[in-house]
Design a protein that fits this description.
The chain is of the alpha/beta class. The protein is 46% helix and 17% strand. Strand 1, helix 4 and strand 2 form a beta-alpha-beta unit.
Length: 249
């Protein structure tokens, strides 16, 4: 097995991700919540088709699988699903594009934290303009916010959450626990990669769900409500929490 580059470990863009996560039950868990989510959209201001943004898409496998699940649920409604995956790592994006790119599924290289903090131009905004949409029907963040949090601190994570909340009708979050944060920080030290400079100053922290509660409360403060939580936890002992914007009636 290849050794992951230190920079990849620091930012969570693992090139061997699907070697150690060869099983992935998230599409099946999400499928159980999708009818409720789509009903919420249909009763509101959803477009004829469904648009999804997947943040931290890696090589695109999960993005592709989630779109397939959406298509199966949308089949009776005669809608289709467009998806775009975004990742900080250009090599991973190139692999995703080579494997899955199509008229309905695209991949973009971008550092979302830099986009959210207005440090670089926004390629996601360009994608939205090309599709004529103001917001995505779904934005998913599967186990990626921890790396933004560690690298950018509380303020950086808040900026990213502000960005996704302003661009999403429905937001799907899979969060890592505080134990995972600690384990990852220790892992970086073992590799001789040093510390995350902002780690000790994080105010959003704590075990037994305290960290996840802080993030969830912030999303709710941005005008969202929890509409579904997957009952089963996946292979990494995490569940999915799905929020809907309160302006969807």
């Amino acid at each position: 097995m290849e050794v992951e580059p230190i920079d990849a470990i620091r930012h969570g863009n693992f090139h061997q991700y699907y070697v150690f996560r060869h099983q992935d039950s998230r599409p099946q868990h999400l499928e159980r919540c999708l009818p409720k989510c789509l009903k919420k959209l249909t009763n509101g201001i959803a477009t004829n088709d469904i648009y999804m943004l997947d943040i931290g898409c890696n090589v695109g496998k999960l993005t592709h699988s989630i779109r397939k699940v959406m298509l199966s649920v949308l089949n009776e409604q005669k809608k289709t699903s467009f998806a775009v995956g975004v990742d900080i790592d250009a090599e991973l994006v190139n692999k995703a594009s080579a494997t899955y790119n199509s008229e309905y599924l695209e991949f973009i290289q971008a550092d979302l934290s830099a986009v959210a903090m207005e440090e670089i131009d926004d390629p996601i905004k360009k994608y939205m303009a090309s599709k004529g949409i103001q917001r995505f029907d779904f934005i998913s963040c599967f186990s990626v916010l921890m790396y933004i949090h560690l690298n950018r601190g509380d303020d950086g994570l808040k900026k990213v959450l502000d960005y996704v909340c302003s661009h999403a009708r429905i937001l799907i979050l899979e969060l890592q626990s505080w134990k995972k944060y600690r384990d990852h920080v220790h892992r970086m030290r073992r590799y001789g990669a040093g510390d995350y400079e902002l780690y000790n100053g994080l105010k959003w922290r704590g075990s037994n769900g305290a960290l996840e509660q802080s993030i969830g409360d912030y999303v709710i403060s941005k005008g969202f409500s929890v509409i579904c939580t997957t009952e089963e936890k996946n292979e990494f002992n995490r569940n999915l929490v799905i929020y809907a914007s309160n302006d969807i009636k």
